[in-house]
Amino acid sequence: MTLESDAETHRIFSNRTQTKNWIIAKISEYTEIPSEEINEDDTIESFGIDSAVAVTLTFDIEEALGVDEQIEPEILFEFYTVRKLTDFILTKCDAVKAEA
Question: What distance in Å separates the CA atoms of residue 70 and residue 52, rounded to the nearest whole number?
Answer without folding.
Answer: 15
